[in-house]
Amino acid sequence: MKRQEFVDQLLKRAKGTPGTRGEAFAPANIALCKYWGKRNAELNLPVNSSLSISLGKLGTRTIIKFSKTSDRIFLNGKPAPKAFAERLSTYLDLFRPEGLFFEVRTKNNIPTAAGLASSASGFAALVKALDDLMGWGFTPRELSLLARLGSGSAARSLYDGFAVWHAGQRPDGMDSYAEGLSNVWDDLRVGILEVSRVRKKTGSTEGMNRTRETSELYRSWPAQAQCDYDELRTAIAAKDFPMFGKTAENNALAMHATMMAAWPPLCYWKPQSVSLMQKVWKAREAELELYFTMDAGPNLKLLFLTGDQAAVRRLFPKVQIVNPFL
Amino acid sequence: MKRQEFVDQLLKRAKGTPGTRGEAFAPANIALCKYWGKRNAELNLPVNSSLSISLGKLGTRTIIKFSKTSDRIFLNGKPAPKAFAERLSTYLDLFRPEGLFFEVRTKNNIPTAAGLASSASGFAALVKALDDLMGWGFTPRELSLLARLGSGSAARSLYDGFAVWHAGQRPDGMDSYAEGLSNVWDDLRVGILEVSRVRKKTGSTEGMNRTRETSELYRSWPAQAQCDYDELRTAIAAKDFPMFGKTAENNALAMHATMMAAWPPLCYWKPQSVSLMQKVWKAREAELELYFTMDAGPNLKLLFLTGDQAAVRRLFPKVQIVNPFL
Fold first, then answer.
1. For residue B100, which phi and psi values (nearest 5 degrees)?
2. Is the pLDDT of residue B135 over 80?
3. Which residue among A258, A264, A274 places its CB closest to the CB of B274?
4. Fold identical between A3-180 and A188-322?
5. Do B260 and A256 touch (CB under 8 A)?
6. Which residues pair with B72 in a beta bridge?
7. Contact between A271 and B267 using a beta-carbon 8 Å cutoff
8. Are A175 and A54 in contact (CB under 8 A)?
């Protein structure tokens, strides 16, 4: 099935009529059980289900209007870089009324493509803004199906708090949607440790494909991901923080491990990533309940509870602490 | 089967009578297809076959005599550290004539336990020196069975040049021996990049056990190792350097990947290890035929051909270059 067919099928469910302006915000999300590997590249269908926590007020705000002459894409107040604008225009083609163009103004309050999943919040905000402009009246679940086409992990950015993205089984991808979990974990905190803002050389899609095609160890990934997904849901329901932290950290390291075993080797780590990891491990040996996760990039995201916030700040004075439920 | 039974069974084949002094040298070896995981800890039987290159004149020289009062172990001219001496004495118990003790003087010209496999050359030299002292008249293959009991990879240090250690299948371990390959590769060079001489916190045996017991990705390791072993033998026979280097580097990274996916995570890398790896990858992108391998430690061992030696020296002025066939 092609992307356009998928969209057309979904748009049959739309109700209402277009307005003149759409606006929306979507949070960034950090995967605790990672999306790593596509079973269908055209429809962004994943090998495994994933689970994330959204970052509250950190994310993307997008305003969309119609435009008469050509697409006009602005990122953080300036005309967007060409690659960025082209990716958005290609995506917007899926929804473009005949003879019309779009003006999109999008703002991130997180660094773009530094492993902080700005493409996730970006496509989620765009889809929500489109829904607002076009008057589709879609549910978050329906919007997650559309956001997925822009960037897989964007499906999870339709929700605050914890979200799961079901891998699904159908070839048409209609069961590969995200949904929010009702669990609230008030004293959970995420600490962002930025190692680099430099745009990564190998994008996630290329990284996934190379890993899936060349890494022998990747064969064990789907089973691990399924197991981690189940354990995380159990840990969240029980608010079992050690189980939660351990599973998230192990899942992230296993994902990076599958990449290192690819060819050519894929290592998103920088030297400083390793020293930060070692600092976390040392703190944990000294009984601090501190864990981390990492996306396909060099930055660490710490996971801890409010009771340890002061200790975490002492260890990592530059940490940016986020309350995901605020 | 117990170690002592294994030794007793082998010693039935011994001929000759003890002398008063034994002396031997054994080279360090660097695994190109790694030994990672034991199927039998008592007998040091490996999960997978491995393949190595010995480091010529870098290794261990050991002199052994009888002693009347107690074992006296010297390392590099000084009384050996307690843990080292105890490990040797426990091993020597397997061969101890009633009422006798040993005096062992062992010297490494490589750093101890910095991932440069000094336990491999150490136990190989000890076993050869024992054979010299006791007059067993064993073949290298028989000695490799005995060296294996001291440290698995020591089996491969009985040989110069390329060596393979067959995993074997028998529960008694009698088919898990090493043998040398006759292939000579005159223009092959190994470059040692030392990141740290600090003794590693987690020894190889503990690291293997933790990985085997907790790393989901390790399930894919035996198949990868078998495949890499076959490819390396093919590459060595054909002197296909790119295939040789790629397979060795990928094998090493896959081994480290299985550890990172263990719990608690096991990362022998230091920040500088990552920057050196990235330097190698960058050089390779610029068409330099340069690869690396790493043991369970932070140091890199470069693999290249003599034609690129000058370029390698320019990139890594501190590299220690070894001709394995000299």
1. -115, 155
2. yes
3. A274
4. no
5. yes
6. B103
7. no
8. no
Query: Is the pTM value of this prediction over 0.90?
Result: yes
For A279-298, the pLDDT digits (tens) are 999 999 999 999 999 999 99
The shortest C-alpha distance from B250 to chain A (Å) reads 6
Put simply, whether B141 touches A (Cβ < 8 Å) is no
Interface contact B278-A261, CB threshold 8 A: no
pLDDT of residue A250: 98
Question: Does any CB of chain B come closer than 8 Å to the CB of residue A325?
Answer: no
Q: Selecting from 3.30.70.890, 3.30.420.10, 2.40.37.10, 3.40.50.2300, what CATH number does the domain B188-322 have? A: 3.30.70.890
- CB contacts, 8 Å: B257 with chain A: 217, 256-258, 260-261
Q: What is the DSSP letter of B200?
A: P
Q: ipTM score here?
A: 0.93
User: What three-state secondary structure class fits B87?
Assistant: helix
A261·B253 Cβ contact <8 A: yes
Average pLDDT over chain A, rounded to an integer: 95
Residue of B219, B253, B272 lying closest to A220 (CB–CB) = B219
Mean pLDDT for the stretch of residues B151-162: 98
* Whole-number Cα distances in Å, A71 to A96, A209, B150, B232, B316: 10, 30, 71, 54, 50
Regarding the domain delimited by B3-180, which CATH topology (the fold level of the hierarchy) does it fall under? Ribosomal Protein S5; domain 2 (3.30.230)
Specify the pLDDT at position B247: 98
Q: Domain residues of chain A, as ranges? A: 3-180, 188-322
Sign of the four-CA dihedral A308, A310, A315, A317:
positive
Considering only A193-202, A299-308, B1-10, which range has the smallest mean pLDDT?
A: A193-202
